[in-house]
Amino acid sequence: MRFYRINLWLLGIIILLMVSLAATFLYFYFYVYPEKTISKTVFLTSIKSADKLLEKNMTEEALELYNDLLPLISRDGEPTVYGHIKNNQGICYQKMAGSKDKKENLTIAIRAYNEALKIFTQKEYPVNYAITQANLGVAYQALSEIQDRERYLSKTLQAYSEALKVYTIESNPEEYAAINNNFGTASFGLANFRNDRENILRAIGAYTEALKVYTIESHPDNYAMTEHNLGAAYQSLSKIEDAEKNLAGASKAYSEAVKVYTADNHPEEYAAIKNSLGASFYALAKFSDYEKNLTKAIDAYNEALDVYAMLAPAEDETGENNPGDGDTTNNDEDEPPKVVARSIDHAMLMSNLATAYYAMSNFRDREKNLVKAIDMYRGTLGAYTIEENPDEYSMIHNYLGAAYQALAEIHPMRGYLTRAVKAYNKALKVSRSKGQPLYDNKVTSRSETSIYKVETLHQ
């Protein structure tokens, strides 16, 4: 009887435990688990909302939501979600850097990308790895524009190289082309600091790879941008080796770019490329077809000059503006210059055209081309002042002196020699004060400038 009572007691305990376990199971099944599922669903929906805000360029709103969501998860518990948020936080800060606190926001963006890369390894998450490395490269490239250029361009190239371990022309042609263009631009920039030949050749190789994707039919704007960059690289390489061959390469690339960039649809780019094209033809004239290439240079410069007249015709046509140095030393008997430079780029272009006219005067129509050269040189002084641009001011007056002196040989009694002496004295004011020699005639272009795409890649 006693044994029976003990068994009943044990049975009661067992039944009680079973009921408790069942109740616990039912509680978690019907209340806790659905609540967790709902919470996770809400969380993922919130991430998608932030992503959509970012796609709509509502950057600060997206960032605020990402910042609210990140503390709710752990890197170990939800690694891919954590990495996704860190990458997109980086994009937000990078976009904000375009309008405010550039250095600070780029630094935070870089930190966020590096946090994401602790999760997104090439082996486990190759696509995410490539996306984040590409974004990191763009951030470093932007930061290189404001500090430690050599250092950050090196980091840029490293990041792009990592991205290109995943992105191939077969698997991701768009990304492959964009990163190669950016890689070329970073290499070209690094050439100013070290291994100039090697880095310029790397740039040319990268631009050429990008052009396998960017065709004039499929990607006209990107085609023009990359051909422009390629031309600049060839133009720089011509100063190191195979000048004639590389100048021909530069001229060809620039000519391709202006098949897309026209004076109507991209006036500033068109003018810049035409100036660079003129500089290439001018340099090429030293090697072959002197008159032909010099004529091409003059035509290219004039086409670029037409853009400035189109953008501000009133300033160019009135002839009311005097040169920027405010004196009339060189126009005692001359009319005001027909065109007055409104910016440094405008003055650079006019100086190049004047130099080409001066060179052509040694070949044909001497007086006519000398007069044109003088008019252009005088017009550049609308932008080049002795206070702000002493080197260019001295250079232009040296050129003016040479042109007036040459004109005096044709008309010795018209006072051109007096004007030549006055121009030389103005040039010497700067050169003597700085202990520098006067300039030789040369042409200049913005060939050291190339363009990179600042688009970031979303996950």
List the helices and strands and how they pair.
Layout: H1 2-55, H2 59-69, H3 79-96, H4 102-117, H5 126-143, H6 149-163, H7 173-190, H8 196-210, H9 220-237, H10 243-257, H11 267-284, H12 290-311, H13 313-318, H14 344-361, H15 366-380, H16 390-410, H17 416-434
How is this structure best described in words?
The protein has helices spanning 2-55, 59-69, 79-96, 102-117, 126-143, 149-163, 173-190, 196-210, 220-237, 243-257, 267-284, 290-311, 313-318, 344-361, 366-380, 390-410, 416-434. It is mostly helical and 459 residues long. Among the domains are: 7-147, Tetratricopeptide repeat domain (Serine Threonine Protein Phosphatase 5, Tetratricopeptide repeat); 298-450, no CATH class. Helix 5 runs antiparallel to helix 6 (149-163) and helix 11 packs antiparallel against helix 12 (290-311). The radius of gyration is 33 Å and the shape is elongated.
Q: What gross morphology would you assign?
A: elongated
The sequence of SSEs as H and E is HHHHHHHHHHHHHHHHH
Total beta strands = 0
Radius of gyration equals: 33 Å
What is the helix fraction of residues, given as a range? 55-70%
Low-confidence stretches: 25-38, 314-331, 435-448
Arithmetic mean pLDDT: 85
Quaternary organization:
single chain
- Count of helical regions: 17
Instruction: Report the span from N to C terminus.
Output: 74 Å
Largest sheet: none
Proportion of beta-strand residues? under 5%
Structural class: mainly alpha
Task: Describe this protein with a few key phrases.
single chain, 459 residues, mainly alpha, Serine Threonine Protein Phosphatase 5, Tetratricopeptide repeat, 17 helices
